[in-house]
Amino acid sequence: MRLSTESVTSSKDEPFRILDANGRLIEGRTGPDLSDEQLVQMYEDMTFSRHFDERTVSLQRQGRMGTYAPVAGHEGAQIGSTYALDRDDWVLPTYRESAIPLARDVEPSEVLRYWKGYEEGNASLVAENVFPINIVIGSLIPHATGMGMAFKYRDDYSRAVVCHFGDGATSEGDFHEALNFAGVFDTPNVFFCNNNQWAISVPRDRQTASDTIAQKAIAYGFDGVRVDGMDPLAVYRVTRDAIENAKRPEDDRKRPTLVESVQYRFGAHTTADDPSVYRDDDELERWQRKDPIVRFEKFLRNTGRLDDERIDAVKTRNEERMADAIEAVERLDDPDPEEMFQNVYEELPSRLEEQFERLQELRDRHGDDELLEG
Ligand SMILES: Cc1ncc(C[n+]2csc(CCOP(=O)(O)OP(=O)(O)O)c2C)c(N)n1
Ligand SMILES: [Mg+2]
Q1: Within 96-157, where are the H helices?
Q2: What is the CATH code of the structural domain delimited by 5-335?
């Protein structure tokens, strides 16, 4: 488990971190190679993500949004790793990573559009080198390796491919196949595991008997590293190192890296879940004390980059940006339910054909409004 510079020091028990709980640089660690402006923008992106989350959950509760998977607790991991990307790199997020397209300048209304059931919202990500989101656990990982292989075949060493997935995904065959191929074909991949301790109601210790997820990289012949996912600066550093390694491997190094980002989801798995039935409030409170936004805000205040006035300005901008996005998405007509059957198969398999016909019958008999209420 080694990467260049300081992040090499990450050990089994202590994930690599740069900031302590009070937002101070840990002794011996250096700050990131980001300008003051970029650091404050990073804070704005993290706080916007939190606001986006709160508003979207509230809209879902009011019946104005579809099922949504909250980000809260993951902002440091998502924004820190996204800031480490170069413009031409690709990132493959899961359903939990709404902050990633937002930080890559995808319009918030497009991200909302996806969660409201419009496939077009997903398609718009591609312009910013963000792969379309899907909900099938682990399924993006072989695509990421395939993308890495394609760049290598084309002798294009200017791009890395960063793929996100959860701790639960590491139990899927897709994870193992993808990492095995990446090791054998030495592809420019960063496999970013958001270990948030739970896969819905399955705790991390029921997911794998390995001490760490990072150590699984050893079996595939490349580096694995653990990072504190609630420290955006540490995540930035580790991901940056991994991306640089993917593009400029030394002779004895493999290009791919497995990053285990150790963090916690504060909210429910999705708006269709109730975490109080399977996890303790104490655990949640312990992790809330490491809130990545509070910690980063302390760092920016301690170092004179942020004050009350600037924070208020960020808050106002976030609220206006989100209000505009909601207005834009609510101006659209509801998506056509027939879209559920499009864009996957050239020709519908018979089982889906039957379901499609059944939908037509129900629409004819009841009309869409009654159907949705029922
Ligand atoms: C192949 C597959 N199996 C099961 C599911 C149902 N499912 C949705 S989310 C989830 C848990 C995933 O947990 P994890 O990978 O840790 O990601 P997290 O939600 O914690 O970010 C499961 C089992 C699915 N979507 N796809
Ligand atoms: Mg998880």
Answers
A1: 99-103, 108-115, 119-123, 140-153
A2: 3.40.50.970
Q: For the chain, percent helix, then strand, then coil, each to nearest 5? A: 50, 10, 40
Instruction: Among 95, 137, 260, say which to mutate for ligand 1: greatest number of ligand atoms within 8 Å of CB.
Output: 137
Distance, CA 129 to ligand 1 centroid (Å)? 24
Q: What is the pLDDT along the chain (374 residues), one digit of tens a residue?
A: 444 444 444 445 689 999 998 999 999 999 889 999 999 999 999 999 999 999 999 999 999 999 999 999 999 999 999 999 999 999 999 999 999 999 999 999 999 999 998 878 788 899 999 999 989 999 999 999 999 999 999 999 999 999 999 999 999 999 999 999 999 999 999 999 999 999 999 999 999 999 999 999 999 999 999 999 999 999 999 999 999 999 988 778 899 999 999 999 999 999 999 999 999 999 999 999 999 999 999 999 999 999 999 999 999 999 999 999 999 999 998 888 888 898 778 999 999 999 999 999 999 998 887 777 76
Give residue 197's region: left, alpha or beta (phi > 0; psi -120 to 50): left
Gap from CA of 194 to ligand 1 centroid (Å): 12
Q: Delimit the domains of the chain by residue range.
A: 5-335, 339-373
